[in-house]
Amino acid sequence: MKNINITELPNGITIISEKIEHVKSFSLGFWFNVGSRDENEMNNGISHFLEHMFFKGTKKRSAKKISEEIESLGGYLNAFTSKEHTCLYGRGLTVHIEKTFEVLADIVQNSTFADKEISKEKNVVIDELNDIEDSPDELIFDKFESNIFKNNSLGMPIIGTEQNLKKFTRNDLFSFINENYTSSKFFIVGSGNINHNKLISFAERYLRKDFKKIITTQRTLNLHPTQDLFVEKDTQQVHYILGKATYGLKDKERIAINVLSHILGEGSSSRLFQKIREEHGIAYQINSFLNSFYDVSAFGIYLSTNENSIHKAQSLIFSELKKIKERKVSEIELSRAKEYLIGNMLMSLESTTYRMLRMAQSMIYYKKIRTVNESIKKVNAITQMDILKLSNEIFENGTLTRVILSPRNLLLIRAA
Predict the structure, then answer these.
(1) Helix (H) or strand (E) holding 411
(2) Is the dihedral of CA 65, 66, 67, 72 positive or negative?
(3) C-alpha span between 375 and 249 (Å, rounded)
(4) Which of 158, 180, 228, 330 could make a disulfide contact with 36, Cβ separation 3.0–4.6 Å?
(5) Rounded CA gap, 190 and 16, in Å?
(6) Three-class secondary structure of residue 379 per DSSP
(7) What proportion of the chain, given as a percentage, has pLDDT over 70?
């Protein structure tokens, strides 16, 4: 990988860059291997709240000035929080990369977390939480993961709870940063027309804070038997998920599950889409999904339909699961799923932001950069027997959990 460079600085921060000479822009991310999974019930939501607060002013910049300095140069800043990491990132023209680096360095080191800004942002995030509560097609995924990962921090929602949000203080934010935002969890990742040595010099110039070299504790996971869950909500449609916890990113079977998911329910040519939407016309939204973490994934089938059709839709789903357990998928169907996965991967590589995301996650999860060719080779290695064996394992009778969100309890619908 001649265009990719990795350097661990003496202070423990890792810098990864990929040089793409034919572009004139860059994507630069400051990643911390910290997310809602590293919280507890008392501070759940603090990682996501910090993501918001990082943009609310530093010792030398107001919130408005942070945005103006980058946008006036044709770039932008953004951020996101997941269950396992937090990323603050910027996009812009290569000639302005130093300014973007300096601003990101300023906000991760010098954010003031003024009490008045904390108070205002609490209301903003609570509004965001209420938006999720009002969006059943989003809410049900939180409920599904809280169900299959119950009694684990992985089951807690990223956004947290209103009760926690209301009580966060300035000291809480600084305490969480000091404990979790350490150099061993800090990755600076860039893709585009980037000079790696310049990134190193920027880090030496602008990162003056001691992020501490603290040995991080291993994340734990203890899965427990789950039961079907009903969520009462005044909705027009019935929202339904059928699924379970399965192999994570560290497991070799995860690639086969990804292929299986595409065959079953991702894309308009998939079995479930063709059967339930195209053939029977009883659901607008029907798809399978795979939400993966290091040591586990949430795999499931989601649909929304009306109350009169939910029983038939469920029966059709179980019928398709029975078929995929009993007969090998055809070579044509398997090949189509592989080409879909590989095609999406290759097309995504035209985005420097996607390339930056891919490198960061590869480094965080695998401690190395996995090449695209490696990924393609793993996808192409999946066989018909792999899919058949995995289908029988995942869809074993009695191992799938249902979550149903609707105005009245429909768990009386018989499950196969």
Answers:
(1) none
(2) positive
(3) 12
(4) 158
(5) 6
(6) helix
(7) 98
51 is known as an active-site residue: yes
* Residue bearing tokens 């999974």: 37
Output the pLDDT for position 412. Answer: 55
Write out the H or E segment, with its range, that includes residue 143: helix 136-148
Going from N- to C-terminal start, the domains of the chain cover 4-206, 229-406
**Euclidean distance between CA atoms 317 and 276, whole angstroms:** 8
Entry pTM: 0.94
> Could you report the per-residue pLDDT of 184-199, keeping only the tens digit for each?
999 999 999 999 999 9
Q: 229-406: which CATH topology?
A: Cytochrome Bc1 Complex; Chain A, domain 1 (3.30.830)
Q: How far apart are CA 95 and CA 89, in angstroms?
A: 17
Amino acid at 328: K
Q: Judge whether residue 416 has pLDDT over 60.
A: no
Give, to the nearest 10 degrees, the angle between helix 115-133 and helix 46-53.
Answer: 120
Are 31 and 87 in contact, with CB atoms under 8 Å apart?
yes
From 245, 158, 187, select the one nearest 361 (Cα to Cα).
Answer: 187
- What pLDDT was estimated at residue 211? 86
Catalytic site residue from 8, 18, 39, 51: 51
pLDDT at 348 over 90: yes
The CATH architecture one would assign to domain 4-206 is: 2-Layer Sandwich (3.30)
Confidence of residue 213 (pLDDT cuts 50, 70, 90): confident
Q: Which residues contact 350 (CB under 8 A, 6 or more apart)?
A: none
